[in-house]
Design goal:
Number of strands: 8
Low-confidence stretches: 1-32, 367-382
Strand order of the largest sheet: 1-2-8
Distance between the termini: 11 Å
Strand content: 5-15%
Largest sheet: 3 strands, mixed
Mean pLDDT: 86
Radius of gyration: 21 Å
Number of helices: 14
Length: about 375
Amino acid sequence: MNTRHAPRPGRRRGAAILAAAVMTALALLTAGCETVSYYAQSIGGHLGVMAQAQPLNDAIAGARDANDARLAQRLALAGRIRDYASRELKLPDNGSYRRYANLHRPYVVWSVFATPELSMELSKWCFPIVGCISYRGYYAQADAEQYAQGLRRDGLEAYVAGIPAYSTLGYFDDPLLNTFVYLPEGELARLIFHELAHQVVYVRNDTAFNESFATAVEAAGVERWLAEDASEDARASYRQYDARRQQFRALLLGTRDRLAALYQTPLDDEAKREGKAKIFADMREQYGRLKVEWGNYSGYDRWFDQPLTNAHLAAVATYQQWVPAFTALLVQCDGDWRRFYAEAGRIGALPATEREATLRRLAPPATRVDTLTASGTGAGTH
């Protein structure tokens, strides 16, 4: 079972800091200057986030003292969601999301995704502990943009995405952040469940597996939270938001599939470029029709206002590829979260080709998360 049994918080923090120091020393001995610089900003950036975190009760008291009722309310809500995650979804019962930090910026990190001009294959970068992943994260937007510019000079297409939260896989007690604490209730629950899921099952060198697993956990978990603990207004708001998001994702994934099919044809590169431009234009037209259907809701305008590339679409696909398979697996486990995590861990431990074949067998032609009846039977924690 590929689950993470978290050590005591103090030991986890000490071990993580020691591991970070060791990785830095190894990098200095074996890597070039650019790699050393990357590790330094990663370690320094994360330790900076942790240094600003304070216990949730202290943060709530501070918000009330400052007459910031909105922040106090959001932190209290996050605390209830965090308790629910361990109690009902059997996610790790540790110090993660029981502290709060205000970073005074809109995102905690900015991730860089890259693909060739005529391919949907994401570039990968390999690191200690997490293995090879299909993005590269920076704590400063300027650093991410600078790196992306270098990739573009090398002929790749690059996309820089602001990320509100990330998981340290249980090595640190990840804090609540200002970058996501003000999200609508359903979205806040979704994010907390997603990041905690990464602490349960994580497979080195398989971003699609890890993100799809966490996305399936978040989707099923938020359905339960909304049904059992949220207000009717919160439920209605999330249903509308999620319906739009599903349509948006379907548009992007459909476009991604059209592009992937185009790139596999025997056409010459110039013809592929022309086809690519038409497909992107079609996507923008379809989005315009969706906006009319949504009553001119503009929530995704910012995404469409930027120059779009293969990397934008490949990044979305990474998070969704195996969600139907994991959703089906949860149904097969009768909604028992522990059985589900154990089975996901077993699949994750398989060789890569066997793992993918197993997920393909699990995935039905269509799966709806709202058909799940996850009971989360059993007591205790992982």
